[in-house]
Amino acid sequence: MSDKYIQPEVTQEMVDTHGFTPEEYEKIKEILGRTPNYTELGIFSVMWSEHCSYKNSIALLKTLPRDGENLLAKAGEENAGAVDIGDGMAVVFKIESHNHPSAVEPYQGAATGVGGILRDIFTMGARPIAALNSLRFGSLENPRVRYLVDGVVRGIGDYGNSFGVPTVAGEVYFDECYTGNPLVNAMAVGIMKSDRVASATAEGVGNPIMIVGSKTGRDGIHGATFASEELSEKSESQRSSVQVGDPFTEKLLVEATLEIIDKDLIVGIQDMGAAGITCSCSEMSAKGESGIEIDIEKVPVRETGMIPYEILLSESQERMLVCVKKGREAEVSEIFDKWGLDSVIIGKVTDDKLMTVKWNGEVVSQIPSDCLVLGGGAPVYHRETKRPAYMDEIVKINLDEYSTDRDWNETLLTMLASPNICRKDWVFDQYDSMVRTNTSVGPGSDAAILRLRKTNKALAMTTDCNARYCYVNPRLGGQSAVAEAARNIVCSGAKPLAITNCLNFGNPYKPEIYYGFTEAVGGMGDACRVFETPVTGGNVSFYNEDPERAVFPTPTIGMIGLVEDVNHITTQWFKNDGDVIFLLGENKEELGASEYLHTIYKTTKGAVPALDLQDEKKMQDALLEAIQNGLINSAHDTSEGGLAVALAESAISNHEAPKGADITLDDSIRPDALLFGESQSRVVISCSASDAEKIESHFKQAAVQCTKIGTVTSERFKIKNLIDLPLDTMTESFYGSLNHKMEKVS
Fold first, then answer.
1. Is 51 part of the annotated catalytic residue set?
2. Rounded to 5 degrees, what are φ and ψ at 514?
3. What pTM value is reported for the model?
4. Which domains does the chain have, with CATH numbers?
5. CA 634 – CA 711 distance, rounded (Å)
6. What is the tens place of the pLDDT at every residue in 17-30?
7. pLDDT tens across 219-267, in order?
8. Which of 98, 100, 222, 568 is catalytic?
């Protein structure tokens, strides 16, 4: 290291390269009262990027319901959301995207997505107990897509398995719109004592600032800005913007972190994710209404010749910034030494509200902390919206164009084998879903269930979004995503508590894209208010486009629910021969935006199925009460693929003990709509024959439509006079499809 650091001269070309608008650059000069230097330019670039500042989304996000009596941290205030679940316990959870890195380097992009979301959980003081994900890719007929699927799934599996957290649930979808820009959304859940929530703050003048964990390298520099632009042909050359993860180091880091929190040695702590040290320093000091001064040359590095700009913007993984209580530094260092991790004092808390960076005693950057952060001086924009012209055309559908003279047996088998419906064992089998032995229900039911040790309770968790609905009608799509998540939680025997979201959209500067974003957020808010599931935080990921198209609007919902008694845990598969099968809700002639039209006719058109949120809530409340009263043997929501697919999944999704069904339907609607229409607010339930009258009485009293449609059998699967199939033929289509397609990976 040289004693004197001479910064490159800031030029207009350099300003443009860092992505500032002329107005933003003028605002920076106004804040500083001078022209920024090279290091400051880099700091503003990452902190005012969309990924860190939420400048094009924060105004709308503030319209979402973010209050609840059991919330321990409001949305955006801490590293993750936290909800009190009683018995002195809290659940901590969050979902985030790692889309752009995964498009360029799928293995490390996905792996570090898992690592980052896990750090958000244990930085709060919670021990991670589960991981989930939501993945979207282009057509599996494309070799590049198969390469991405393979890399992403291996990255998720290897990181989670090595770290020792079970990956218990998720969703995997395929559509051409994700060909060049896959979506990789990672969610994590943790448990902690409700009175030990750690805060991402730096306060108390003179308190030391420590960097702990791994050494800093050049990986991930400008990762935040890379995630704030569209993918293009040059993106492949930006592999240096993709971080490299080490799950074994993170396994040590979680133990050291939880120990210093448990021993009350610190004031605050924050994970170094996007924008690295820069983001942690500015956000922690702004939250504490303090200043922070760091000596950047003291940061442990693993590469020679690193300059302040690189150290500040590096997104090397498995690192934390800690504000330590003065006088407890030695204890913190002793703990990190025990776990073989670096812990170095690099600065202190000040009272000037400035983020000051020194290099060998020389100030190389000095910026007011609050001016860098979300909710402070970072820009806030209200973008133009324009309803896309295609929305008026796409809802038009003439059902007479679609013949009902079909072999419905073959049609059901085709649907069960389609990539969006088939069993995803090729994915799930690469994840350890049972490590730590708390998993009661793993991948393959409506929601995952994890027992809470030393209690009689359990947690239910799911990720959901029908992006095709959002493409056709983003408001209704946003509502439906929340409704389906809540339905899955309730079908599992849990009461929905709260959500986290990952909002994946295209370029917000395009009015048609921003219209979809605005409407989807509005729909999400509508539903969250009805289901009383406040938004605890999450992530916005814009610029999900390749040179040909934007992805469908994809507001992924991660939802948590509480099972008050483990005896109420419910799964989707039929249990006993002779059990009676009921359908909650109404079959309607709604084929629009369906998986059936997409799979069989390769088209997306027609109106999204109608959704009455109040009726949905009434049905869910009645269903949960029936489950808690011990009346329900199985429950499965009707979603993609409609009633026939929901019944088939109920029959064969327990691979070890498949069951048949004999179904009679009296609805006078088209057979394709009856079998594969996706009318909302429907659930397939089964109960013992002795409880059938109680079921009918219960739902009648709740004013919820409940129709007896058949019985569970031991052999064949029959629906009316339309479908009659042996179970082994169905299981072959359902379980073998994805494995067969992924065998083509070279």
1. yes
2. -70, -30
3. 0.95
4. 12-55+198-371 (3.90.650.10), 67-197+437-568 (3.30.1330.10), 571-743 (3.90.650.10)
5. 13
6. 999 999 999 999 99
7. 878 655 554 455 555 545 444 557 788 999 999 999 999 999 999 999 9
8. 98
